[in-house]
Amino acid sequence: SWGIRLEGPDMNSAAGWIKSTQDPNTVNNMVTVPNAVAYSGFTWSKVVGGTLVQVDTVPEIRIGESTPGIFFYVASYTNACGTFTDTVTIYSFVTGCPGPTAITTSTTCTEATITWTSDINTTDSYIEYGPAGFTYGSGTPVPSSSSPQVISGLLANTRYDFYIVDSCTIAGFSTPVKVTDTTLAGFSTAAFTWVQSATTLSNATVDFDASSSVNGISYTWNFGDGSAAGTGVMPSHQYAANGKYYVTVDVEGPCDTATFGDTVLVKNISVEEYTMNQSIEVFPNPSSGKLKVQIELISAEQVSIKVYTVIGQEIYLRELGTLSGKHTEELNLMDQPAGIYLIEVRTANGATTKRVVVEN
Asked: Which of 1, 46, 168, 261 could hold 97 in an S-S bridge, CB 3.0 to 4.6 Å?
C-alpha cells in the first residue's frame, strides 16, 4: 500500500508532496477513536413541565425514554453571532394504554369527521394526519382530540391517513392506530330544460327539468315572476300571463353551489289565442245573465260548452253531444255575480272562447 504525505511547509504546490510506502493499517493500528466531548456553547435540554432542563453538552447523544409519550428536546448553540436553537420531537411508544376502537370516518369536500371509543382509563387523545403515505411524526397534529373530532381545511378528492393515539394514567400512550379516508370530489354544474306543457284560459303550466345537472344535492328555483321559490329536480310552475321570464336554478352540491339561468317564453294565455275554424256567436253582450250561444259547424262534431270566471274557476259545463250545421244553446247566468265571464266552446279540433259581461 502507498499514499502521499506532505513534508515541510505547505507551499501551495506539488513540490512538498512525496510518495509514501507506509502501510496505513500498520500506522493506524494503535489509534483510538476519542469519545464525543463537550463543545463550548452547545447544550441539549429537555422540556419538563414547560421548563428547559439541561441534559448534556455533547452534540451527539442517545435518547432512551423508558415510558411512552411525546417528548421534546432542544439543541442550543451560542457563539459570537447569537444563539441558535432547534427542537426535536421524540415519540416513545412503549406498550402501554389500550388503543382506540370502533373507529369510523366520514368526509365532505374539505372536512373529515373521526369517531372512536377509548378505554375507560383514557385521559386524552391525540390525532395526527397527512396525505396518505406520510411518515408518522411529520404530519399535522391535533392534540387533545375528542370523539367526534372534525378536521377542517382538507383538499377535495384527496386521500388522507389519520393516526389516533390514546393516553392514560396507567402506562402513558397507546400504539397509534391508522385509518384512511378520501375527501369527496365533484364540484357542481347546473343546467335545466323547460317545456310549456299545458295552457288554460287563465294560466300556463311550464315543466322544468334539471336532471342534467351534475352533483346536485338540493335545487332552489326562481321562476322570474315574483312567486315563492321552488324546489326539487323537476318542478312545474304556473304563469298567469304571457311574456318572457328569466328563470334560475341554484344547484347545491357537496363542494359548492352552481347557478344556471334561461329565458322562458310563455304564450297563448289569452281568449283571443284560442280559436277553431267554426263560427261562434254569443248574444246579447252585455246581458242580464240570459245568453244565447250560436254555433255553426262545418261537419258533425262532439261539442261541449264551459263557462269560467276570469280567475279560471269553472262554473258551468254541458256536453251537447254530436252536432252539425247551426245550433243555438241558451245559458242562464243570472244567479252569478255581475262581472266578466269566459264561454268556451270545444270540439275535437280545438276550442273558441268568447268574453261576455253580465250586468245584474
From this structure: 168
